[in-house]
């Protein structure tokens, strides 16, 4: 039950989040931005990733976008980190590779989505009728 609640909570955060900063910057705008090429991201590892949130979120679109992104990413990291050990090691590595390769500014959001999608897909393989 705890895993199901954690998965549901991560899904809610990945889909929308709870930040008041979101009202100022449309989610679609944040979804369309990429990390600057000079920002170095950590290599995928089994340990929880420590992404440089401020560097990841800093764009040429100003402080409002940066602040909204930083606020949301810090919230997502706080939710994702305690649940980290519940994920499969192969999913941790694969999802980190995906998000660092794509380089969207919302790394933790995309990481949580990827992990939960892979977990759900694995569950569907074992329970094709949804039971």
UniProtKB/TrEMBL annotation:
Q: Which UniProt keywords apply?
A: Signal
List the protein's name: DUF1311 domain-containing protein
Going by the entry's taxonomy, the superkingdom of the source organism is recorded as Bacteria
Signal peptide span per the entry?
1-23
